[in-house]
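note to self: dont lose this again. the chain is below, predicted strucutre after it. 104 aa total, dont forget to put it in the shared folder this time
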Amino acid sequence: MKNILDNQVREQIAIGVSVVAKCQPCLQYHLKEARKFGVTDREIETVIKLARQIRSVSEQKMDEFVGNALNNEGEETSVAAVEAQGCCPPAGEPEKEMKDSACC
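---
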């Protein structure tokens, strides 16, 4: 498979994923690699800021989901209802453009 992303872009994505996944060894490794490929501190700071925002929103949405699930004791939480208000498309469907700020 041909790699269509250059090393700088790949490492910036890896930094963001490391922050969202809360993987400290991953972040340390990808920071070093990014700098090796010429990614600037300003670019790294921008990626980290975006990743933190995404992580924060996803944590908030999961907390809301868990709270709703706990409030509906004995009831099954509707996956369709969650997908309708969530930010990610159902599995197997293409990504859709977000029209509101419900998601990162």
